[in-house]
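Morning F.,

Quick status update on the modeling queue. The single chain you submitted on Monday has been processed. Sequence for confirmation:
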Amino acid sequence: MNTDDREQLIPRRRSTRTEGINDVDPVSYLKQNEGAVPIGSLNVLSSQFESLDYDICENKLLMNEAVVRGYAFVTHKSLARWLIFLMIGVCTAFVGIFINISIEQLSDIKYSTIKSFLDSCSAKECMYKPYFVWVGINAASVLVGSLLVTFCEPIALGSGIPQVKCYLNGIKMPRIVRIKTLFVKTIGVISTVVGGLCAGKEGPMIHSGAVVAAGISQGKSTTFSFLDLSILTYFREDHEKRDFVSGGAAAGVASAFGAPVGGVLFSLEEGASFWNQSLTWRIFFASIISTFTLNIVLSAYHGHPGDLTFAGLLNFGEFTKLSYEIFELPFFLMMGAFGGLTGALFNHINYKITVFRMRYIRPRWLKVMEALSVAALSATVALLMMFWISDCKSLGTDPTTTPVQLYCGDGEYNTIASLWLQVPEATVRSLFHDPNGAHNMSSLAYFAVVYYILSIWTYGLSVSGGLFIPCLVTGAAWGRLVGLSLETFFPDCSWCMDPGKYALVGAAAQLGGVVRMTISLTVIMIEATGNISFGLPLMITLIMAKWVGDYFNEGIYDIHIQLSGVPLLAWEPPPLNYQVQASAIMSHPPCVLRTVESVRHIVSVLQRDTFNGFPVIDPHSKSSNTMDGIRSSGRLRGLILRSQLIVLLQNKLFNIASSDWENGRISMKIFRKAYPRYGTIDEITLTEEELSYTLDLRPFMNPSPYTIPVTASLPRVFRLFRALGLRHLIVVNDFNEVVGMVTRKDLARYRVWRHFGRTGVEELKIS
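Structure tokens below.
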């Protein structure tokens, strides 16, 4: 996006507080409304996204429940949390085990079949046989996953990391943590990797872990309603579910890379908007359990029971000698800068391709055809490289792969074939650990460029697959090329004799330049290699990659989040905006309800407005004028949510007496039973007599909601809203009278942009 586009701002509209109540696909919404907003724009927010209710509603029902249950229940609930995190770690590991073994078995069949056709083809004229076999296997495998993702569950597209990041930021992402999504994600990842696309299984493990955590912690499935075990009902709240999803995402990282500490830091750095010490312990516990479970099962599966040699799905292999000299640090910095440049170019080209997809590749069948085309192209390019590039080495030079002779002489094998005819994880290990002389410089250069281009095109296809492995493969290829180049320029050096060391640095630089993670990625790489002494080179490489990449554009996940119009809140408020007050960003006038309201009026409000929170005012207070002519709506008494009103109307709790909730006949169970799908007002049928009743909101409303003075600055409003994970922030005047409401979109529309070293704040459009 150029600077002129970023500076095209529009005035705020009252609709910024409107949050849709239906599950929608944001990309589809933008496409359907292309006349109102440009498809593929980065400065548009979709009004269809809801926020999650992370703020605990401390109403009279909740407080009465806490008093009745006492301290024994507090202990019981704490033990239940630890047990759930234990189950999250175990179940996430078994999902990874199933994916890993399935890919391994199917890939062995695939590549052994292709190799047999290649070995039996003694003349170049018969190359069409292995070619059609290769393309056919790729297309058949990708077809299965693409059909599932495109027609069954589009939210399972890609790695799922952007969606999990948005969920932990406080945004309700439709269908993100459903069992159906986990099923499609699992089968989709297997089909993608076996289908030869430039994608990996490690990134989707984060999404899979989040789904596992959400399902276990709730004790039921909304996809399959019969799977309601009627247990753990006290965890059926957004803020409790958020903590478990954080643990599930961390367990997914731990099982993918064998990095429990890296998993905790990933959840902290990339996702969670809320954190405390007790949550850190529980998430680390789940990560440890996930790593241990996967390790012990896969080690036994591979014939090494008790050795625990398979800590994660991605096994970097053992680096027997991984040391560096102080004068190598400038080379690592330059590699980090190059990784930042190539990462920024990766993100820019992928952004253009994604916009093209949003505008022109709309029909579902066309999305499937694109995925099949890329699968066929991947096989075509691989076979052409094997056919045209003559890079033959003596047998025994490359011990990590099954050799393919192809057109090499007796006692030789084709090195290009060894890179393509294996799963991407094995290619990474080959580039890390192949001995010196196993690859020619020209072969590595061609392979790096081709894999780089295919990775850009693959990310965003209607398939399930991660970005970590393609970046690691590309970076390892050009990193090993750097090591060989240094050896050529400094033939007598002892420190440049290990090209695998530079392959590792290049892999980190490429991945960091694309995703822009620093702390968690450094720890993940350290844990995956098992060498903490190499932490400094990895850290400075990743920092340099991030700095250089941020100079040009955002990280790949942030770009895709912005393209979807998701109102993601940054960690810090927009700078230099202290002159902007709450009165300038709030939505006004607010829609309010009285403490005792008629059922007819409540139904009318719910049918007319799509707001999810309503300030409750004193019915006897009178509105008065405030500064700048803003009229108040009455003295604040509390806040009632739309979901609460829906449940009250569904259960027809009209004209209730105080004894009904004081003696427990009405409790929080009615709200937890309906969570998370509360229904809509159109699904409720009331008689004329019932509409004439009244509804006392005082036992159910939050009597102490968070408020902000009308004169508060934008940074202060932002910090309060972001740190507490709020959905609604009521703006009051000096007399505690309601004058407005601040929601996520009122704050998210102020976005900080950085482009070619310049920084500014843009006001986004609301679709």
